[in-house]
TrEMBL record:
It is found in: Cell membrane. This is ABC transporter permease. It comes from the Bacteria. It comes from Brevibacillus parabrevis. One of its GO terms (cellular component) is plasma membrane. Belongs to the binding-protein-dependent transport system permease family. CysTW subfamily. Keywords: Cell membrane, Membrane, Transmembrane, Transmembrane helix, Transport. SUPFAM superfamilies: MetI-like.
Length: 222
């Protein structure tokens, strides 16, 4: 393998990991808020608020309906406002985080809705506050499903970085386009694809391992 290829791949990999880590962190923070709010404000929820639920749901559906490349372009002014530029991995984090948050919000909503209504009612019966129900019942009981969903979300963000690379975000996606496609470097194109596949496999394997660990501890104490 040529030294220049190794250097290019290493730089692209670091930029991709940088984008994936921070985008996942920010998207997860927003996604948790969205997902929990959707569940607790739904009809029959512990903080029932149908109008608020409908507004949030509509906004989420609207953002999710936009192709990622269009969403990134629309958010370029916000990226400039926050980080001072529209190019590079840091600027891409803004768009990737906002683009992935609604997706994660729906995943978290779905996972929390799997929690047995009986356990929520039991918590209410002993006088638990909504805050206690959310953090002592809903989230702990849904943890395996949450981890599986978040794993899918992080994999999605990893794939999103490749799309963002098309408009100057950097990372492996940009490397594949600038060198692999535009300069006809098949070695670069193949290597970047293999690296992305490997990265996705590692993320999936880590998520599966964490779910098994959570389930093992849960069965041990039951």
């Amino acid at each position: 393998m040529n030294n220049d290829l190794i250097d290019l791949l290493w730089e692209g990999l670091l930029e991709t990991l940088y984008m994936v880590f921070w985008s996942s962190l920010f998207a997860l923070a927003m996604g948790v808020v969205l997902g929990v709010t959707l569940v607790v404000t739904d009809k029959g929820g512990i903080l029932e608020a149908p109008k608020l639920n409908k507004v949030i749901s509509t906004v989420i559906n609207g953002v999710r309906s936009l192709p990622l490349i269009i969403l990134i372009v629309l958010l370029l002014p916000l990226s400039r406002l926050i980080v001072g530029t529209t190019l590079g991995p840091t600027a891409a984090i803004v768009s990737l985080s906002i683009g992935a948050a609604p997706f994660l919000g729906r995943i978290i909503e779905s996972a929390l809705k799997e929690v047995s209504a009986g356990k929520i009612e039991a918590a209410k019966a002993v006088g638990a506050t909504p805050f206690t129900i959310i953090f002592r019942v809903l989230i702990p009981e849904a943890m395996p499903a949450l981890v599986r969903g978040i794993t899918i979300g992080i994999i999605g963000i990893t794939e999103f970085t490749a799309v963002a690379g098309a408009i100057g975000a950097g990372g492996l996606g940009s490397l594949a386009i600038r060198f692999g496609y535009q300069r006809f470097r098949e070695d670069v194109l193949i290597a970047t694809v293999l690296l992305i596949i490997l990265l996705v496999q590692i993320i999936q394997w880590s998520g599966d391992l964490l779910v098994k660990s959570i389930n093992k501890k849960r069965y041990k104490f039951e």
